[in-house]
Amino acid sequence: MDSIMTAENVSRCFQTAGGDFFALKKINLEIPRGKLTILRGRSGSGKTTLLNILGALDLPTEGSVLFEDRDIGKLDEKTRTKLRRYEIGFVFQSVALVPMMNALENVDFALRMTKYQGDRTKRAMECLRLVGLSGRAEHLPQELSGGEQQRVAIARAIAHRPKILFADEPTGALDTAMGLTVVKLFKELVEQEGVTVVMTTHDVGLMELGDRVYELEGGELVRGAGENKTDY
């Protein structure tokens, strides 16, 4: 299977009062292109640290991350910033929508930030339709439910057509039914937009929807190292 991103012997060490703390230890994994990959683990397992490194928000202490054969760690900060802005999308548990902008304006804002060259309004509406919110375009964030706000955040994240989308606990603040809806939406976006999605979760019930699942515990991979979920 074609991989868009590969982590090779990735470790991340933090300096603490008690000494060195390894949040990640020798992680090796591949992210298949055009698929939904799930990083699962309990709080403190290292999944968010790993997501931040894969998304070029942080750098490994040891090892390397290759994004389409580019070693992220060897890029200068300006190039990494451009990489995050133009080729990567992010969705976080805290949706961080601009409260004074309606749903359409929030998505359009992301397009302006990435200097989108096409018809911004048309693309923003297209993304809201993809997440099932075309009828809520004029509503402010406070007029939307938590699930709807998360879907606006997803529309915003995919608007500039990133190659890969990282979602950190996107269902963490939602009930089980709405969380399932959000993950199914990611699956639909993979199929319709061709985007690669990597998401973290602690919910065992969502694992079945992943094309590939990696499980972390204590900063180490304990399941799914290089395997397709259906193989175990």
Structure write-up:
This protein has 232 residues and is an alpha/beta fold. Helices cover 31% and strands 29% of the residues. It is built from six helices and ten strands. Strands 6-7-8-3-9-10 form a six-stranded mixed sheet, sandwiched between helices. The protein has a four-stranded antiparallel sheet with strand order 2-1-4-5, covered by helices on one side. Helix 4 crosses helix 5. The C terminus is likely disordered.
How many beta-strand runs? Answer: 10
The average pLDDT value, as a whole number, equals 91
The N- to C-terminal Cα distance equals 17 Å
Molecular shape: globular
The helix content, as a percent range, equals: 25-40%
Main β-sheet, in a few words? 6 strands, mixed
Major beta sheet, strand line-up: 6-7-8-3-9-10
* SSE series: EEEHEEHEHHHEHEEE
Low-confidence segments, ≥5 residues, pLDDT <50?
225-232
Quickly count the helices. Answer: 6
Q: What structural class do you assign from the helix and strand content? A: alpha/beta
- Radius of gyration over C-alpha positions, nearest whole angstrom: 17 Å
Task: Work out the strand percent.
Answer: 25-35%
Summarize the structure.
The protein has 232 residues and is an alpha/beta fold.
Question: Topology of this protein?
Answer:
Blueprint: E1 3-16, E2 19-32, E3 36-40, H1 47-54, E4 62-67, E5 70-71, H2 77-86, E6 88-92, H3 103-113, H4 120-130, H5 146-158, E7 164-168, H6 176-193, E8 196-201, E9 212-217, E10 220-223
Parallel strand pairs: 3-8, 3-9, 6-7, 7-8
Antiparallel strand pairs: 1-2, 1-4, 4-5, 9-10
Which characteristics define this entry?
232 residues; alpha/beta; six-stranded mixed β-sheet; four-stranded antiparallel β-sheet; 6 helices; disordered C terminus
